[in-house]
UniProtKB/TrEMBL annotation:
Its EC number is 2.6.1.16. It comes from Histidinibacterium lentulum. It is found in: Cytoplasm. This is Glutamine--fructose-6-phosphate aminotransferase [isomerizing]. GO terms for molecular function: carbohydrate derivative binding; glutamine-fructose-6-phosphate transaminase (isomerizing) activity. The chain holds residues 244 to 605 of 605 of the full protein. Transmembrane segments: none annotated. Residues 36-177, 210-352 form the SIS domain. It catalyses: D-fructose 6-phosphate + L-glutamine = D-glucosamine 6-phosphate + L-glutamate. Catalyzes the first step in hexosamine metabolism, converting fructose-6P into glucosamine-6P using glutamine as a nitrogen source. Homodimer. The active site is at 357 (for fru-6p isomerization activity).
């Protein structure tokens, strides 16, 4: 049931404030993090490994920044198809989390099975709790996104991010890298996120108009720094899978090491730059793009918009948000841009060509 929306994807994008609230309700008890029993002891872990495919991998990539910055745990990430055949040496004092919406992705399941008996704990971050990946894990962390029908993952992505962020905050609390008060403060900010996402969703009309121009492009580039880099990767994936426009993502600092050669007036460059400690660096990369005629679509906040200066093609202004939450909030305009570009192109948004919702063969 599309509930009056034109596509499941549109419905699932719009549902995010509600489903994220549900995820938070499931993991927070009286303002404290309450993990499914028996919980996870982060003090005994030397490292953490995060494995997934596709969008789940980008959720893991974002979480690497959180676990490392907040809890000071070294994190290894990989796509499951590489991990399983590389057969990496594993630290027995480590845990691995396998992130999968369906819980049935063949490569992710094989990667999980490779870890069995080699590490202390195997955890599943899944939407479908009655799934192979959940069954084969010691611990299951449901994301509570509800059924996701659109092939392009949207609400499962943001709910994966929320659960991974809660785990990183719990790790920080246990390891004492954040005080109880600091964790409580972050949780209060997280509680406000669904409201901010509603503001982001209100940009839909603007994004729909922008998408008409983006739909004419042959290539689109996505740039971000820090935890916004994995979101750039996710933005490019979303764009290519439903609009069939070639899209690539780079860490902003990598621009001058190659991809800047692609820039001309035909290539829209989506720059994700919330006001944070890396903002000035991203803006200077953006200026390099504009100096070569590139059309920059800047996604930022009000402060970032006024600091960015002239020459930006279009700016989307999101509400102000704590930097650690920016990757989740910025996911919304990125999803809407891919969605409306695909609608503009007339593709089969919910069932893009060559793709399946659950990839149970490798
Ligand atoms: C992209 C997308 C895919 C899946 C990937 C993993 O929008 O949906 O990249 O993320 O196939 O699927 P799950 O999460 O079910 O293991």
């Amino acid at each position: 049931d599309k509930a009056g929306f034109r596509h499941f994807m549109a419905k699932e994008i719009a549902e995010q404030p509600a489903v994220i609230t549900r995820t938070l309700d499931a993991y927070l008890d009286n303002g404290r993090i309450d993990l499914p029993a028996p919980g996870l002891d982060f003090n005994t872990l030397d490292r953490l490994t995060l494995v997934a495919c596709g969008t789940g991998h980008y959720a893991c990539y974002t979480a690497k920044y959180w676990f490392e910055a907040l809890a000071r745990i070294p994190v290894d990430i990989d796509v499951a198809s590489e991990f399983r055949y590389r057969e990496p040496p594993l630290d027995p004092a480590s845990a691995a989390l396998f992130v999968s919406q369906s819980g049935e992705t063949a490569d992710t399941l094989a990667a999980l099975r490779y870890c069995k008996g080699k590490i202390s704990t195997i955890g599943a971050v899944v939407n479908v709790t009655e799934s192979s990946i959940a069954r084969d894990s010691d611990l299951v962390f449901p994301i509570h996104a509800g059924a996701e029908i659109g092939v392009a993952s949207t609400k499962a992505f943001t709910c994966q991010l929320v659960v991974l962020l809660l785990l990183a905050l719990e790790a920080a609390r246990q390891r004492g890298t954040l005080t109880e008060e600091e964790v409580t403060g972050r949780l209060t900010e997280l509680r406000a996120l669904p409201g901010l996402i509603n503001h982001a969703l209100a940009l839909e009309e603007r994004i729909g108009r922008l998408a008409r121009r983006v739909a004419e492009a042959r290539d689109v580039l996505f740039l971000g720094r820090g935890a916004m880099y994995p979101l750039a990767l996710e933005g490019a994936l979303k764009m290519k899978e439903i609009s069939y426009i070639h899209a690539e993502a780079y860490a902003s600092g990598e621009l001058k090491h190659g991809p800047i050669a692609l820039i001309d007036e035909h290539v829209p460059v989506v720059v994700m730059a919330p006001t944070d400690t890396l903002f000035d660096k991203t803006v200077s990369n953006m200026q390099e793009v504009m100096a070569r005629g590139g059309r920059v679509l800047l996604i930022t906040d009000a402060e970032g918009a006024s600091a960015a200066g002239d020459g930006v093609w279009e700016t989307l202004i999101l509400p102000e948000v704590a930097p650690f939450l920016a990757p989740i909030l910025h996911a919304i305009p990125v999803q809407l841009l891919a969605y409306h570009t695909a609608v503009e192109k007339g593709t089969d948004v919910d069932q893009p060509r060559n793709l399946a919702k659950s990839v149970t063969v490798e």
